[in-house]
Amino acid sequence: MNIVFVLFDNVTQLDFTGPVQFLSRLPGADVHVVSKTGAAVTTDSGFSILPRSSFADCPQANIICVPGGHGVRDAIADPQIVDFVRAQARVAQYITSVCTGAFILGAADLLRSKEATCHWAYTHLLPMFGATHRPARVVRDGNLVTAGGVTSGIDFALELISDIAGEDVARTIQLALEYDPAPPFSGGTPANAPDAILSSLRARVYEKAATEMESAIKKII
């Protein structure tokens, strides 16, 4: 089973490295990490990842996964990235995204009339691509599977493994990787975050970031 992760500069590494760590353990998995030319991409954490393949030599995906990150604003305007995702999606068994990677699916016209999710700070932009936001960490609509922000990608990977290979396999991988989150603080979603922290984060980071993303989307639709 070919599992293709599409990378680009300024990708959020955990959007990718979380799901790939789990999905690579799916029996029969053949993971292909790809970039446009096969060259290394720089993550928004400051280090680089060297892909396995370029778009030109990437096999047809059974699962295609598109992570998010600051680089999405440029990626949605890159016809080579958008066309590659669209072409792979025509045959893929599962079309998936993590975080703002959903907007690359949207640019490829893969969200229209679908339910989807992404990072909480950007969910109001999903209707720009014809999608309806459903508030959940993982949303499935047919063969489209979208995950919320960043760490939601691990939950999405486990759901996909369970769907493909069964719950026992998914539970075994979960145990092997000791995935049993118990963070020291609650507040990882707007619903349970302290109001002061949520307001501060929106003002310092996400109001500007969401406005910039909206402007980038308007240029391509």
TrEMBL record:
Pfam family of the protein (one): DJ-1_PfpI
Organism of this sequence: Sphingorhabdus rigui
Enzyme class: lyase
Residues annotated as domain DJ-1/PfpI: 2-162
Cited InterPro entries: Class_I_gatase-like, DJ-1/PfpI, INH-QAR
Keyword Lyase part of the UniProt annotation: yes
Keywords, alphabetical: Lyase
One GO BP: regulation of DNA-templated transcription
Coiled coil: none
Protein's UniProt keywords contain Electron transport: no
PANTHER family with a match to the protein in the record: ARAC-FAMILY TRANSCRIPTIONAL REGULATOR, DJ-1_PFPI DOMAIN-CONTAINING PROTEIN
Name of the protein in question: Cyclohexyl-isocyanide hydratase
Enzyme Commission code(s) on record: 4.2.1.103
Top-level taxon of origin: Bacteria
Gene Ontology molecular-function annotations: cyclohexyl-isocyanide hydratase activity
